């Protein structure tokens, strides 16, 4: 009887947790954007209480490689639902978009593979990145978005995508939070003015922790003051801690261009 009661309790906790996550996911509408070149970008969108005259920040969330596809669901697996809790929507009302990168392509376009500290930004953005930038411009015209408060964050493949985006479009973003990613070290002077908080696991063997250290060091050398959180005894899943960090979220929403 005691074991049965314990199992029942765990089951009820699981049901409550699952329903809470589903509730947060359901707050993201399903959308589709077709660029002027005919490329399709699926995305989910979270809306604030937009029935006001005020403007709201826009958060762009870039998922990792495992969430690529065309189901317009998988990109909600990690991190982004943290922005859709009752508390977050009350304290930091904002528009949030979570685009989904198609299979066999990346958010970023570097001339060398990940984990190579000599990566160079290709002059041409990837198709998903080009579509994303067009989508952002479209949304800023369509909704009451504060263009001085456009934030970008992403994990793993999305962390590289975050660096790609700010290095390629340095005047678009008010702040960036790349999680276990890296970028082109030679482009760092272009982003020295952008508030950046980097997260990485100190035992990450998927994306070399040196990527975070080298990017941080390069930013300091050009006069920037980035944040760096190296999580001890954490491997690749550093985003679990990153998107639950209240101090980081408070910092993010304070940033303005």
3D architecture notes:
The protein has helices at residues 2-26, 86-91, 127-142, 157-168, 210-221, 239-242, 246-254, and strands at 29-34, 40-46, 56-62, 95-100, 145-155, 175-179, 197-201, 227-231. The strands form two sheets. Strands 1-2-4-3-5-6 form a six-stranded mixed sheet, with helices on one face. Strands 7-8 form a two-stranded parallel ribbon. With 257 residues, it is of the alpha/beta class. The model is unreliable at 6-22 (pLDDT under 50). The N and C termini lie far apart (61 Å). The longest helix has 25 residues, at 2-26. The protein has a single domain (24-254), classed as Rossmann fold. The chain has seven helices and eight strands. The protein is 33% helix and 20% strand. 40% of the residues are buried. The chain is globular and about 45 Å long. Strand 7, helix 5 and strand 8 form a beta-alpha-beta unit.
Quick synopsis:
The protein has 257 residues and is an alpha/beta fold. It contains seven helices and eight strands, in the order αβββαβαβαββαβαα.
The coarse silhouette is: globular
Termini, distance in Å?
A: 61 Å
The profile of the biggest β sheet is: 6 strands, mixed
Number of domains: 1
The CATH architecture designation is: 3-Layer(aba) Sandwich
Q: State the helicity in percent bands.
A: 25-40%
Element pattern in H and E: HEEEHEHEHEEHEHH
For this structure, what is the CATH class? Alpha Beta
Query: If you average the pLDDT, what whole number results?
Result: 90
Radius of gyration over C-alpha positions, nearest whole angstrom = 18 Å
Uncertain residue segments: 6-22
Strand order of the largest sheet: 1-2-4-3-5-6
Structural class: alpha/beta
Q: What share of the residues does DSSP label as strand, in percent?
A: 15-25%
Number of distinct helices: 7
CATH overall fold name: Rossmann fold
- The total strand number stands at 8
């Amino acid at each position: 009887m005691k074991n049965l009661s314990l199992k029942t309790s765990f089951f009820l906790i699981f049901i409550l947790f699952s329903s809470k996550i589903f509730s947060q996911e359901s707050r993201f509408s399903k959308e589709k954007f077709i660029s002027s070149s005919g490329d399709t970008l699926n995305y989910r969108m979270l809306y604030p209480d937009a029935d006001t005259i005020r403007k709201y920040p826009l958060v762009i969330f870039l998922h990792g490689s495992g969430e690529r596809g065309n189901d317009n669901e998988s990109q909600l697996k990690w991190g982004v639902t943290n922005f859709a809790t009752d508390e977050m929507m009350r304290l930091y009302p904002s528009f949030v978009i979570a685009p989904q990168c198609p299979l066999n392509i990346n958010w970023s376009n570097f001339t060398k593979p990940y984990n190579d500290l000599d990566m160079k930004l290709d002059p041409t953005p990837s198709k998903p990145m080009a579509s994303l930038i067009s989508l952002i411009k479209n949304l800023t015209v369509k909704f009451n978005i504060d263009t001085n408060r456009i934030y970008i964050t992403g994990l793993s493949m999305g962390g590289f995508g975050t660096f790609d985006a700010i290095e390629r479009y340095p005047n678009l973003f008010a702040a960036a939070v790349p999680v276990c990613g890296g970028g082109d070290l030679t482009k760092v002077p272009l982003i020295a003015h952008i508030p950046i908080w980097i997260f990485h696991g100190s035992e990450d063997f998927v994306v070399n922790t040196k990527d975070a250290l080298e990017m941080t060091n390069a930013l300091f050398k050009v006069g920037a003051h980035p944040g760096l959180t190296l999580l001890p005894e954490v491997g690749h899943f550093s985003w679990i801690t990153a998107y639950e960090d209240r101090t980081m979220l408070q910092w993010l929403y304070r940033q303005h261009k």
